[in-house]
Amino acid sequence: MSRCYIQGAASISAQNNFAEDDFMTEVVAHTSNMAKAIPANYKAFISPAASRRMATGVKMGVAAAKMALQEANVTLPDAIVTGTGMGCIEDSEKFLKNMIDNDEEYLTPTSFIQSTHNTVGAQIALGLECKAYNVTYVHDAISFESSLIDAQLLLEEGEASTVLVGGVDELGTLFIEQVALMEKRNSGGITVPFGEGAHFFTMSSEKSDTTWAELQDVITFSVASPGQVVERLHAFLAKNEQNIGEIDAFVVGINGDEYDGYYQKLKAEFVVDTPCISYKHLSGEFYTASAFGFWGALRCLKKQKIPLAMLEDGIERSQYRTILLYNQYKGRQHSFILITTC
Amino acid sequence: MPNTELNNKDWGGIAITGMGVISAIGHTTAENLEALMASNQGIAQVSNVATRHHQQIRVGEIANTNEELANELLLPKDNNYSRTALIGTVAAKEALAQAGVTEIQEYKTGFISATSVGGMDMTERYFASYENTPEVRKYISSHHAADGTQKIAEQLGITEFVTTISTACSSAANAIMLGARLIRSGRLDRVVVGGVDCLSKFTINGFKTLMILSDEDCTPFDAHRKGLNLGEAAAYLVLESQTLVAKENKEVLAYLTGYANANDAFHQTASSANGEGAYLAMKKALQVARIDSNDIDYINAHGTATPNNDLSEGIALERIFGTRVPDFSSTKAFTGHTLAAAGAIEAVYSVLALQHQVVFPNLHFKTPMPEVNLKPAMTLQKKNIQHVLSNSFGFGGNCSTLIFSKE
Amino acid sequence: MEALKQELKESIIEQLNLEDFTPQDIEDNDALFGDGLGLDSIDALELIVMMDKDYGIKLTDPDQGREIFTSITVLADYIAQHRTK
User: Fold this and answer.
1) Active-site pick, B27, B337, B364, B387
2) Pick from A95, A96, A220: which is nearest to B161 by CB?
3) DSSP states of C43-84 as a string?
4) What are the Cα distances from residue B149, in Å, to B81, B158, B310, C51?
5) Chain B positions in Cβ-Cβ contact with residue C62 (cut-off 8 Å)
6) Distance, in angstroms, between B208 CA and closest chain C CA?
7) Cβ-defined contact of C18 to A106 (cutoff 8 Å)
8) Nearest CA in chain B to C65
C-alpha cells in the first residue's frame, strides 16, 4: 500500500496562520457571531484579470492552494481534489438576489458562472494549466474528508504521486444570517461563531524534507448514534493496528451545540491524560472547518506543541507522535482521521 | 490491507446490477427505453417552473409535480424535500429494486450522488420569505448539495459511505467513477451511484445569461445548432464487485470497464478549440478499459448542441478515432441537458444500448458541422455492440469519460 | 459623444470590476478585447446586458458583440446610432 505524506499545508482562516514561526501565540478573538477570514496577500497569487471575478472563497482557495504547492516545491500536482459544503455561496446569493429583485431581467453571467460548486478547483487548474484529475466534493461536514479519501485512493492506485487536496467555504451574508438565527432560536444550537476559510495540502507518496506528517487513514460514515461511533472508533484503531493508549492527542469539533455529546462520549474512551484539542471557537463553524482542525493537528505534530488556545482540558504531553481527529455535524457526517509523525 | 483488484491482470470491470431513471421521457427505465426506441422526445415548453422566459425556451421536464412525487414516496406533509431529492429518491429506489437488494447492510454499501442545483429550486421560491414566514424555514437546511443526497441515502437505508460530487455537467460521471474505484480498492462491495438535477429558475436564468439556450428543439452536432435545451432527471446505477455478484449469483446488466477524468484548463465555461480535456479523458478511459479506439462500437456523446461544445467534442473525437469515428449520438435531444444528472442518465442509456444492441438516434440532425467530417446516427440502428463510450463535459473544464462493456 | 465615451469607460470599469483602472487608463481607440484591455467572452456577455439595460439595445447573437466592442469609439458610435433609452 503506498504511503500518504503531507508535504505542504496552508491555512487562510479567521486566525492569523501565515507566519511559519508563529502558531496561535496571538489568538484573534471573535467579537460577533461571524468570524471572517483574514485575507492573504491575494495579489501575490492571483492575476488582476482573474481576481476581479473572484469571490472570497475562490480567492482564499486559489491562494491557499498555491501556498501549499509552493511549500512542497510542486509546480504541477497530478490531481486536484477540493471539498466545499456550501459551494460558492456569495455568488449564488448575488445571482439569486438579482434574479428576484429584477424579476429575471438584466441578469449578468459572471455571478452565475462563479456560483458553480467546482469553481475553486477549476480556477486552481486554470491558473496552473493543470489538466489532471479534478473533482469537487460537496457533502456537508465530510466534504474535506471525502477529498482526503479520494486523494488517498489516487496515491494508492498509483494514479498520482502528488495530490493537491483542500477544503473551502465562505460565509456569504444572506443565507448564513438565516442559519445563525435558526441556531439562536434553538436552545441546543451552535454557540461558536460561524466562520470561513480555505485549507490546502500537498500530499505525496514520497517523503521529502518538507514533510509535515503521514496520513495513516481516514474514514467517513453518514449516520450513527454515539454508541455506534464508539464501536467505530475501536474498529478504526484496530484496523490501523493502533492501541488507544498510543494516541497522543484527540482532536474534536466542539461547537457548543447539543451534539457535542458525541465528543464527550468518545473522549471517555481515551486514556485519562490524553490531550484534547478543539478549534471551532478559533476557526468558527463551517462545513470544511475540520480542515482547519487537520491543519492545526499537523502543526502540533510539527511543532511538538499544542497551543494553549486549542487545549481543551489543559493536559499536555512532552511528545506527540500520533493524533486522531473526529468530527461530526448535527449527529451526521462522522469522520475519523489518523496522522503520525514520520 | 484491503482486498484490492487494482493491478489485477484480469480486469473485467465492475458489474452493473441495477438501474433507475426518471426524465422527460419516462418515469422508469422501461419507459425511457420505449421512448428512445420510438424516437419520442420529451422537449416541450416549461410548465412546472414559473419563469418569464417560458415562451423563449424549450426544456426536458419530468411530467410529475412535486406533490405527485411526494405522494408516490409516501412522504409526510411537512417534509422539506426539494424536487432534487424527490426525483432522486424515485430513481435510486428503482435501481436498488432491480439489483434485488433486500438486506442493504449485508455488504459494505455506499451511496455517491451528484448535483449542481441541490435544493435551489426551493431556495429560490422561499428565500425572500424566510425572515417573516416560519413555515418555510424548513427549506433553509435543504439548500446545500448534501441534503438531497442524505435524504436519498436514508430512504435506501445506506448509512456508511455517503458523499456528493459537484463538477457541473460531468458530476454524475465522476460519481460513477469514484464508485468503481472504491469497489476496485476493496473499500466497498457495492455502491449506488448517479446524479440528479431538477429544473430551476436559477439555472434557466443562468444559462440564459450565457446566451446558449435555444428557443427551439436542440440539434446536436448540426451545423445550424443554436444552443441547448435544459432538462431535469435523476439516474442511478448499482455497482457491485465481481466477488459479490458471484456469491449472490446476480444477473449482470453490463460492466463498467473504463473511466477517466481530465481538465481542459482553458476557460471557466468554454471548451478549448482542440478539445484537449475531452481528448485526454477519452484516451485515459480507453487505457483503463485496456481496449483500443477501434473496439468502441457506439459513443453516447455529450452533444449539448451549443456551438462551442459540439465542435470541441467533434474535434476531440477525430483526434481519438481518426477517420473511423464509430456510430455516435447525443441523447440530449430526447431529454434535454440534465446537467449534473447527464453522466448518469447517459450511463443508463449506454447500458440499454448494450443490452438491446442498438444505437439510439441523434434527433433533429440535418447538416454536418463544416469543420469536421462527422455525421451522427440519425435513426435507431441495430448492430453488434460490445463497448460503449460515454462523454460528459462540464463548466470548469471538467471532462469525464466512461466505458461500458458487454462482458 | 465625449460624455458617452466617459460614461462607457466608467460603466465598463464598474460592471467588469476592473479594480486597478480609472477612466483615464482606457484610450478611446485601444482594443478592448484580446491584447488591449484583455477582456474575454464572459465580459462580452456582461456588456451585452449593459447595452440592453442602459441603452435599450438588444443583441441576440453573442458574435455581434465582437465587432461592436472593438474599442470605446466603435462602441460609442454604435450606441449613439441605435440607442432607444
Assistant:
1) B337
2) A220
3) HHHHHHHHHHHHH------HHHHHHHTS-HHHHHHHHHHH--
4) 11, 11, 31, 41
5) 211
6) 10
7) no
8) B211
d(CA A200, CA A8): 8
Query: How buried is residue B384: exposed, middle or buried, by Cβ count under 10 Å (0-12/13-18/19+)?
Result: exposed
CA distances, A59 to each of A37, A132, A141, C21 (Å) = 11, 21, 21, 20
Given an 8 Å threshold on Cβ–Cβ distance, is B209 in contact with C49? yes
Residue B1 predicted with pLDDT over 90 = no
List the CATH code of the domain at A5-204. 3.40.47.10
- Architecture (CATH level 2) of domain C2-82: Orthogonal Bundle (1.10)
Set of cell numbers at residue A88 = 460558492
Please measure the distance between the N-terminal and C-terminal CA atoms of chain B and give it in whole angstroms.
29
Active-site residue B302, yes or no?
A: yes
**Cβ-proximal residues to B166 (8 Å cutoff; 6+ apart), any chain:** A87, A116, A117, A118, A136, A137, A138, B114, B115, B116, B145, B340
CA distance C48 to chain A (A): 9
Residue B53 bears catalytic tag: no
Q: What residue ranges do the domains of chain C occupy? A: 2-82
Whether B337 is catalytic is yes
Mean pLDDT of C6-35: 91
Chain A neighbours, 3+ Cβ pairs < 8 A: B, C
Asked if B144 lies within 8 A of A86 by C-beta distance, the reply is: yes
Grid cell digits, residue C20: 486597478
Query: Which 3-state string (H, E, C) describes chain A?
Result: CCCCEEEEEEEECCCCCCCCCCCCCCCCCCCCCEECCCCCCHHHCCCHHHHCCCCHHHHHHHHHHHHHHHHCCCCCCCEEEEECCCCCHHHHHHHHHHHHHCCCCCCCHHHHHHCCCCHHHHHHHHHHCCCCEEEEECCHHHHHHHHHHHHHHHHHHCCCCEEEEEEEECCCCHHHHHHHHHHHHCCCCCCCCEECEEEEEEEECCCCCCCCEEEEEEEEEEECCHHHHHHHHHHHHHHCCCCHHHCCEEEECCCCCHHHHHHHHHHCCCCCCCCEEECHHHHCECCCCHHHHHHHHHHHHHHCCCCHHHECCCCCCCCCCEEEEEEEECCEEEEEEEEECC
The residue extents of the domains of chain A are 5-204, 214-340
Per residue in B166-192, pLDDT tens?
Answer: 999 999 999 999 999 999 999 999 999
pLDDT of residue C85: 87
Report which DSSP code applies to B361.
Answer: P
* pLDDT average, residue stretch B340-360: 98
Nearest to A46 by CA among A57, A33, A30, A34: A57
Question: 0.95 cut: is pTM over it?
Answer: yes
| Angle formed at CA A179 by CA A176 and CA A181, multiple of 5 degrees | 110
Question: Looking at the domain A214-340, which fold is it?
Answer: Peroxisomal Thiolase; Chain A, domain 1 (3.40.47)
**B273 and C CB contact within 8 Å:** no
Q: Cβ–Cβ contacts within 10 Å for residue A267, how many?
A: 16
Q: By the CB < 8 Å criterion, does B269 face chain C? A: yes
